């Protein structure tokens, strides 16, 4: 009986989802950015800067938020020069605000109010400010844990709260994007603090999606893999070898590749945005009770989860091998040093006795 119900459900549902996916592919319902205001936190560098360039090319007015004024100024010039071929005065298209998103709430609120006063209400918010540090658990200072949570989670929370309030009041819809990480979906060696912060961003986005749906405001979460950016270079300086070897499995992408997909998914209202096969596999596997925003993703989650779980077992097995190998190397190096030390100890003892 249960089998009959299930098979008839699947037989009816699958064609419906396929037709819907095809319909959405050929007649996409998209947000449009021409003349709209897009605020990008972390817009002075890396993925955020690439996003700023992409949305400006789609005709949006852009606000870049970050701390370092020089980098902000340089980013403004870069975005403006990318838009020189567009009609209108490209120099008035981009404005910058220097704010520490881990700092005082009043400063953040004031910056958003000023940004909206000059460029109009924010239609699309892209939370891209953030950073990563990988370290072995017991070596992570409390101050770093706090900073990771303050910037990656609380920074996004505060800016979004302020922007969404206005979006809801105006009732004209809007787009909110969060930047998590593939490390926000899977806990990896060295990322205990970072994964906790980025994982929390995912749950924030899932809950907010449910709240904002009736208001026509869509929520997207971007899960970048390793992406060639100044932030990534900084992260590599202290990354444990295990973390580097494991995260290399998903490949290295450019910030433009990640940003292009982010903007495309956000404008289509897709909840998930990622690039590469590993990103697709991971987001499909971890979809769980996450929002359903497009039929194609739902179809792949329905039919590929079992297979991907099996493939993930091989990935996890190879990750454990990396960790075990590195652990053994350390033990061997440690015992060699110990042996050398004890040789030195006996030698000095012998000298003393002589
Ligand atoms: N690159 C990767 O491999 C990768 C992978 C997964 C996820 N991500 C995530 O993607 C996002 C962008 O990363 P990215 O690699 O493009 O980094 P990035 O090149 O270092 O850019 C980070 C941006 O955030 C700003 N920022 C950092 N802390 C801030 C604060 N407290 N207040 C205001 N602005 C702040 C930075 O400017 P200032 O320093 O001047 O403030 C900069 O504009 C981050 O959330 C990161 O965690 C990156």
TrEMBL record:
Record key words, sorted: Coiled coil, Endoplasmic reticulum, Lipid metabolism, Membrane, NADP, Oxidoreductase, Sphingolipid metabolism, Transmembrane, Transmembrane helix
Gene Ontology CC terms, in alphabetical order: endoplasmic reticulum membrane
Subcellular location: Endoplasmic reticulum
Pathway: Lipid metabolism; sphingolipid metabolism; Sphingolipid metabolism
Transmembrane segments: 298-317
Gene Ontology molecular function terms on file: 3-dehydrosphinganine reductase activity
Coiled coil: 62-89
Catalysed reaction, written as an equation: sphinganine + NADP(+) = 3-oxosphinganine + NADPH + H(+)
Gene3D superfamilies: NAD(P)-binding Rossmann-like Domain (3.40.50.720)
GO biological process terms on file: 3-keto-sphinganine metabolic process; sphingolipid biosynthetic process
UniProt keyword Magnesium, yes or no: no
Entries under SUPFAM superfamilies matching the protein: NAD(P)-binding Rossmann-fold domains
Domain of life according to the entry: Eukaryota
Keyword Magnesium: no
Record-listed E.C. numbers: 1.1.1.102
Function, as annotated: Catalyzes the reduction of 3'-oxosphinganine (3-ketodihydrosphingosine/KDS) to sphinganine (dihydrosphingosine/DHS), the second step of de novo sphingolipid biosynthesis.
Family label: Belongs to the short-chain dehydrogenases/reductases (SDR) family.
Protein name, UniProt field: 3-dehydrosphinganine reductase
UniProt organism field: Scylla paramamosain
